[in-house]
Amino acid sequence: MNKKYSIYKTLMILLLIHQSSFTMQSPLPHAIAFSTFYSALGYGIAKGIALWKVRTAQEAPENVQLWARDILNNKNISHANSVPLKLGNSWLVCGGSFIQIDQESAERLEKNLTKKQITSDEETERALAERSLLHEAKHYQNNDFSKGLLTHNLSIIPLVFSFFSPVKKIIYVPNIAKLLIAIGLPVVNYITFTRYQEAEADRFAFMNLSSIKKLEMNRDRKLEHAELFEFNVINYPYSSNKNWFENKIRSILFNKIHHLDQKLLNCSNNQSKHIIRQKNILITIANFIYDHQHPSFRRQVTIADECLKKRYIIENHS
Q1: Are 185 and 155 in contact (CB under 8 A)?
Q2: I want to staple 127 with a disulfide (CB 3.0 to 4.6 A). Which of 37, 155, 209, 214 is the partner?
Q3: What span, in angstroms and rounded, lies between the C-alpha atoms of 153 and 178?
């Protein structure tokens, strides 16, 4: 992503140099100014909420704090000793200001961190918590919150630009096209960049876990999630926890997958490969509808496998 940001900066410099087209009388600087103001307002609101949460949210338990800061220091995460570690209903980085630790995980972790001997389940829980912490540490270290707002700001410039009257006189843009741009470009940009950030945070976490054994535990848990999700998609088209739209799409995918399963019963080996590929695409679509912000469960398993191979090589040659 650093290369992309360099490209954006270069384009802005070129526009500024070309003063005949980049003047305050032209619509482009107005579009950029409006988009920047819009993003700055969103940034300010998000930061305000984050600062309020820093003051009001419950601190992570003492042993969890010590455990977390030790890991953050070992991985050279900025402000490892001072970044607020708060409790909430999930793992996340809030407004780029603090790391939120899942409360239920923290409570269990606080208990087993004081034990000299732990069960296999408690060992797995520690490994999963370490991965979650490293994942969020990558978001915090990389300042993904601010970068996400920047890319969103850039994505809405063409939309704002198209609404200025000097542009409309030269280029006619139908209302339906404006609507598609208004909805499509920022949404595609948001989803693409968010999924990229999540994949990179996963990769960082897998590569920096304190042992290969912990990576294997996390990889196995990701595989369990993938298999469970696929089982539910194939066998349970409706879910009471989902909205009408998702249930409708899942029902359609359910019927198509079962149709493909029927075709698999009477086909050649070459045809079966094609059918299985189609089935995997449908499952990927279901996964995207279920969670558009993160890579699919199978993609997360693939990332874990890639990191395992790299770490085997690194540790065998060290």
Answers
A1: yes
A2: 214
A3: 17
